[in-house]
Design goal:
A: 115 residues; mainly beta; seven-stranded mixed β-sheet; four-stranded antiparallel β-sheet; 11 strands; B: 110 residues
Amino acid sequence: DAGVIQSPRHEVTEMGQEVTLRCKPISGHNSLFWYRQTMMRGLELLIYFNNNVPIDDSGMPEDRFSAKMPNASFSTLKIQPSEPRDSAVYFCASSLRGLDLYEQYFGPGTRLTVT
Amino acid sequence: RKEVEQDPGPFNVPEGATVAFNCTYSNSASQSFFWYRQDCRKEPKLLMSVYSSGNEDGRFTAQLNRASQYISLLIRDSKLSDSATYLCVVNLSNTGKLIFGQGTTLQVKP
């Protein structure tokens, strides 16, 4: 099993540019989560999908952030326009609902730096 | 008030020591509880679930006190490889949505 795959692993961009982060969940998992991690705020849930449908996007910081899940094997998180305060590690995680424990499997993360 | 609160540490202990981490959660409707481990510059990974009756996995023991809304993790006979950040995690409802604490950093020294 390849695990959760994220790309790119590192992204450096200038303020105002569009950034697209990509995630491929574990095959067969039906829930997908996008998190952001910073030293100051820790790990924050941005949005999550169940069966490709967004369930809770209350953690999305503002309209500059958007996420899509066009099919069960792919999701994107887009920031447009990016700002320096968006610099963080963005994790994607997936899980299989129906299990008692809701274990989430995280991808390796995308380290985003906005200058 | 944060939904899940932990002492950030760091906890610096010698090899072989016993160390305990505590965590409190604010929502009494929380249903499931976990400890995740995160190594430096890596992704979080599930360490163990926390059951109402308490549970043990080798050197690790987790306890839950629903009345006090308190979770603990005990590590016995600490190893250098235990050095990491330990995240207390709560599932608020039957949604699969997890709330992570800020984490407690452990550094085990030789």
